[in-house]
Design brief:
mainly alpha; Alpha-lytic protease prodomain-like; Cation efflux protein transmembrane domain-containing protein; monoatomic cation transmembrane transporter activity; membrane; Cation_efflux_TM; transmembrane
Length: about 220
């Protein structure tokens, strides 16, 4: 099964128990997990921005922007946890748009870096990739138990899982750059990260829009 199939499988549909109530009981553990994820992602954004600049790595810059987006997404999720399904889905819709926009930006960055012909520094690139992988796997394991909620909760889990996949790809790209002495492994991985951002973002948008319509129809039927 491909990465694309895995992404679609995770995001496909929404269980009926996620849309039957206007609000949900929030686990204190989930709220705490989101705070931890928020702090770790914000810290790694600065680490990868600085490291990516020194290493001249597009995939590290792409991953840094992903960390920034995830930190913002966790903050949004914390803000809407106790709200109705409509507002949780609205937050997920915003996150889906952000993920899609991030992917488009990275594709543009890949094209620009190819035009400039910048070859990254593989050792620094790989070291930061390993650190980022450790952080993202820790966050993904922390959020794993909450992956089967509504579109808001599921998008949080999806972001964390995709980040771990992206970090593995960054490490592979560093090895590829070291072995070939060219920029192309770095550009390829950056493009893959961009593709994940676009496809996952569109999946989140689709589910969030469906949940918003369901919640609105319930309000109309009660009126």
């Amino acid at each position: 099964m491909t990465i694309k199939d895995n992404v679609r499988k995770v995001m496909a549909g929404c269980g009926c128990n996620t849309t039957t109530a206007p609000t949900q009981k929030i686990s204190p553990k989930f709220r705490k997990a989101l705070w931890i994820a928020l702090v770790l992602n914000a810290a790694m954004f600065f680490v990868e921005m600085i490291g990516g600049s020194h290493a001249r790595s597009v995939s590290l810059w792409a991953d840094a922007l992903d960390f920034a987006g995830d930190a913002a997404n966790y903050a949004i999720s914390l803000a809407v946890l106790s709200m109705t399904l409509y507002w949780r889905a609205t937050a997920a819709l915003l996150k889906g748009i952000t993920m899609t926009a991030f992917g488009v930006f990275v594709i543009a960055k890949v094209i620009w870096s190819w035009w400039l012909g910048l070859t990254p520094e593989p050792m620094l690139m790989g070291a930061i990739g390993v650190l980022a992988l450790i952080v993202n796997v820790s966050v993904a394991l922390l959020l794993y138990a909450f992956r089967d909620g509504d579109s808001n909760m599921r998008s949080v889990w999806l972001c964390s899982r995709n980040d771990a996949i992206a970090n593995i790809a960054v490490i592979i790209a560093a090895v590829g750059v070291f072995g070939t002495g060219t920029m192309f492994p770095d550009l390829l991985v950056a493009f893959i990260i961009a593709y994940l951002g676009v496809s996952s973002g569109l999946s989140v948008i689709k589910q969030a829009r469906a949940e918003r319509k369901i919640d609105q129809s319930k309000l109309v039927s009660k009126a």
